[in-house]
């Protein structure tokens, strides 16, 4: 190789290597200072796509976890109100059992009815006032609530919760009935058909002269399983047959074939005001049956909400595990290995220092030509 002055090949070669080392050193400094292996798309184009997808999923699951926790709070709010409603119903049942004793005086029955009326009003208030974040839960307006517990826009990412309509419980406790004027009990015959808008029951009354009193007619009706499941028959102070619906609705009906005895189609029936009646032992027993039916409704509703709460708890646990695993996957792609990168940085730093020194030496080599000119 000859000796040139205009073109210093050694200096150019050293400069090229030094420039490459400086770029490597700059990238190492960027990674070490940010803690990220991928600071721009050029660092790892494919890894960037994967990591951004994982980032979206992690963010979505984090929000979904908060949604599920809100779901638990909603369910707990509703279930707590139902628990109090159940306590009220238990107290109403105690009052009804107490009223079933004919040892009670008129004043005692009045006091029992007053407390029952107050408790029923509180049931209505609870159903209308229980809310979460301004949204009523137990008055029937909430319907089925959807909770997003996943990161995707699919049905599998949602949990549906059917909210309870507690107002129907209070309404059913106050369900009215109908008075049927039994003119001649011995003339009652044929089939007694009664309807409350939800259930229709037909009771075969038998032949004429089977009953001597209105009470006997009521006992016959109450002895029928289908009738007793939906209605209650009693006798009021005016010796009239009172049929009360246990599930709400307007009571209509009569005996087919002997309209003079009770009437057909509810034409001779007069409405009975709603509310639990403790005026007689028979009415108190009807109240017990009505309250038991509503206790079953509330217990079933509380059980359903409890099951949903357990589902939310499992969903939250599953989301936490998924977030942890996805974050680990994202970390392996985007986060820098500090130890490994520090090795690269040290190497680049040494090469940078030696390259600078060698560039100085390469720049001095053309000066040897001056000796030839000496």
Secondary structure: elements and pairs:
Blueprint lengths: L8 H26 L10 H55 L6 H24 L1 E2 L2 E2 L7 E5 L9 E5 L4 H7 L3 E4 L9 E6 L4 E7 L7 H10 L1 H6 E5 L5 E5 L6 E4 L13 E4 L8 H54 L3 H27 L4 H4 L2
Antiparallel strand pairs: 1-2, 3-4, 5-9, 5-11, 6-7, 6-10, 8-9
Question: What features would you highlight for this structure?
Answer:
374 residues, alpha+beta, f41 fragment of flagellin, N-terminal domain, Immunoglobulin-like, four-stranded antiparallel sheet, three-stranded antiparallel sheet, 9 helices, 11 strands
Mind explaining what this structure looks like?
The chain has 374 residues and is of the alpha+beta class. Among the domains are: 51-172 and 291-324, f41 fragment of flagellin, N-terminal domain (Up-down Bundle); 175-274, Immunoglobulin-like (Sandwich). Helix content is 57%, strand content 13%. The protein is built from 9 helices and 11 strands. The longest helix has 55 residues, at 45-99. The radius of gyration is 43 Å and the shape is rod-shaped. Mean pLDDT is 84; it is low at 255-269.
Helicity level, as a percent range?
Answer: 55-70%
**CATH class bucket of one domain:** Mainly Alpha
**SS element count, helices:** 9
Mean pLDDT: 84
Largest sheet: 4 strands, antiparallel
Coarse structural class: alpha+beta
Spatial gap, N to C terminus? 22 Å
């Amino acid at each position: 190789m000859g000796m040139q002055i205009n073109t210093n090949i050694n200096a150019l070669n050293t400069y090229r290597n030094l420039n490459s080392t400086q770029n490597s050193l700059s990238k190492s400094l960027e990674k070490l200072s940010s803690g990220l292996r991928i600071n721009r798309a050029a660092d790892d184009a494919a890894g960037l796509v994967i990591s951004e997808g994982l980032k979206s999923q992690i963010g979505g699951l984090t929000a979904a976890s908060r949604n599920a926790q809100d779901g638990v709070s909603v369910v707990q709010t509703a279930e707590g109100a139902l628990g109090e409603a159940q306590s009220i119903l238990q107290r109403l049942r105690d009052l009804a059992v107490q009223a079933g004793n004919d040892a009670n005086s008129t004043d005692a029955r009045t006091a029992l009815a007053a407390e029952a009326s107050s408790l029923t009003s509180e049931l209505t208030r609870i159903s209308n006032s229980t809310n979460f974040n301004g949204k009523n839960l137990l008055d029937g307006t909430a319907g089925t609530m959807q909770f997003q517990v996943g990161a995707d826009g699919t049905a599998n990412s949602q949990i549906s919760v059917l909210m309870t309509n507690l107002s129907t419980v209070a309404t059913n406790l106050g369900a009215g009935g109908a008075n049927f004027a039994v003119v001649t009990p011995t003339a009652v015959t044929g089939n007694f058909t009664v309807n409350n808008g939800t259930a229709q029951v037909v009771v075969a009354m038998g032949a004429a002269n089977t009953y001597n009193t209105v009470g006997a007619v009521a006992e016959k009706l109450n002895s029928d399983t289908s009738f007793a499941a939906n209605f209650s028959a009693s006798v009021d102070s005016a010796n009239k047959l009172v049929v009360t619906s246990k599930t709400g609705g307007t009571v209509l009906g009569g005996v087919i074939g002997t309209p003079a005895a009770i009437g057909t189609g509810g034409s001779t029936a007069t409405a009975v005001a709603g509310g639990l009646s403790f005026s007689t032992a028979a009415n108190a027993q009807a109240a017990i049956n009505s309250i038991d039916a509503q206790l079953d409704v509330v217990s079933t509703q509380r059980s359903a909400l409890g099951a949903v709460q357990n589902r939310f708890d499992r969903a939250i646990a599953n989301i936490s595990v998924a977030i942890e695993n996805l974050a680990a996957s994202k970390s392996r792609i985007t986060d820098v290995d500090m130890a490994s990168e520090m090795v690269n940085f040290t190497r680049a730093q040494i090469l940078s220092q030696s390259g600078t020194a060698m560039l100085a030496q390469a720049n001095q080599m053309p000066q040897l030509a001056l000796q030839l000119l000496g």
